[in-house]
Amino acid sequence: MKSYEEIAKITYAGPDSDEPFAFKYYNPDEVLAGKPMREYLKFAMSYWHTICAEGVDMFGSGTLDKSFGQRDPMAKFRAKADFAFGLMDKLDLDYYCFHDVDVAPEGATVRESLENFRLMVAYLKQLQEKHHKKCLWVTANNFGDKKFMAGAATSCCADVFAVAAAKVKACIDAAIELGATGYVFWGGREGYETLLNTDMGLELDNLARFLTMARDYGRAHGFKGDFYIEPKPKEPTKHQYDFDVATCMNFLRKYGLTGDFKMNIEANHATLAGHTFQHELRTAIVNDAFGSIDANQGDLFLGWDTDQFPTNVYDTTYCMLEVLKAGGFTNGGLNFDAKTRRPSNTLEDILLAYIAGMDSFALGLRKALALRADGRLDRFVEDRYASYRSGVGKTIVDGTATLESLSDYAMGLDKVDVPSGRQEYLETIINNVLFR
Prior knowledge:
This protein has 2 domains: 4-374, Divalent-metal-dependent TIM barrel enzymes (TIM Barrel); 377-434, no CATH class. Helices cover 47% and strands 10% of the residues. The protein has helices spanning 37-41, 47-52, 73-91, 100-103, 110-131, 158-178, 200-220, 245-254, 267-272, 277-286, 313-325, 347-374, 376-384, 391-398, 403-411, 423-434; strands spanning 31-32, 35-36, 43-46, 95-99, 134-139, 182-185, 191-192, 226-229, 239-240, 261-266, 290-294, 334-336. Strands 3-4-5-6-8-10-11-12 form an 8-stranded parallel β-barrel, surrounded by 4 helices. Strands 1-2 form a two-stranded antiparallel ribbon. The longest helix is centred in the C-terminal third of the chain and has 28 residues, at 347-374. The chain is globular. It starts with 30 loop residues before the first strand and ends with a helix. The relative contact order is 0.11.
C-alpha cells in the first residue's frame, strides 16, 4: 500500500476500481440533476479529530503522534495547519471546521491564549488563499478546560461566564475574518449532574442571555451566516440542556431566538438521544431550522459517542433524502466529525477513512436522487394523506372546521377505514433502488 507521502491527490476511479486510495462513488465535479456533487455535499474536515486527536482514550495513551516534528507550541500549530491544508488538497475537500484550541496553543492567561489564536487565524487565512479552501464554521471549546467543569454559559461562576464570552467573541471575529458561513454552539457542559446543587431556571436564562449577546455581537460586526446549536443529550454532562432538536427548538422559541439559530445535527448524537439521524433532520426541517450536519455514525452496542466515519449507506441515503427535501444546504455542509479507530494509527488510515465516509455519502446522494426520480415513496405519502385535500379533511387543514362541526360529521359515520401504512413494501422499494 502507498505511503501518505506517495499520494498526490485522491481522484475518482469508479465503483469497479480496487485502488484503495481512490473514490468509487464521489466524483466531485460530476453534475447530478443540474448541480455538481461537491455542491450537494459540501464536505468539510473536522480539525479536532483529524489534525489534533492522537488516539487517546480513557484507558490508554495516544497511538499516533501529531506534533509533526515540532516542540515549540506555535511552530507545532503552524505545522498542524500546513498538514491540514495539504490533507484537504489530497482529498479535494473544500471546507474545514475548528474550535479555537484546535488551531492555537493555550497560554498561561486568557489574554495570551487569545493572542495565540489571533496569530493562528491570520496564518489560516493565508493558507486558505494559497490552497483555495473555505472555512465552513467556527466554534469555541468552552468545555475542555477545568474551569468549565460546571458549564460555561450555565456555570455557577460569573467569571467563567465572562471567559466563555471572551472566547466566543474571538471565535466570531475569526469566523468573520475567515469568511465562515456558520458559528456553532455545542453545550458539552451546559447542563447538570444533579438538581441538588443546580438552579435550572437561572442557568437556562443565562444560556439565553449568552446566545443573545453572541448573536447581537456577530450581527453588529458583519457576521451574516447562521448560528447553530448542536443537540446532544448527554456525555459528558448527565443532563444536557440541548438534548435533541425538539428540546432546542423549545428553548429557542421561549427566548425569541429562532430567527438567527438553526441546528447542526450530528448522527451519533441522534443515536444517544434514542432517535434516528433521519428523525432529527426531519424535526429540524419542519421547524425551519435545518442548517448543517456533523457526519459520523455510532455503535449501537456502545453507549457513548464513538464518532466513527460513516459507512452505512442506508443512513447516508436517508440523510440525503432529508437534505434534498430541505432544498439542500445554504450556509451549512457535511462536516466529518469523525475519527479513525484507535488501532488505525497511520496517516494513510486518515485518507482511507475520509475516502470511506465521502464515498458513503456520495453513494447515498446518488441513491437519494434515484429514489426521488423513482417517485413511488413520494406518491405513497401523498396518497396516504389524500383525505385532507377534500371534504372534512380540507376543512381541518384550511381552519374552517370547529369541534362542533367535526362532532356532527363523526356522528354520521358508520365505519372508519384507515389506509395501510405498507412499511414493508416501502422498505422493499428502498432495497430495490439501492441494489439496482
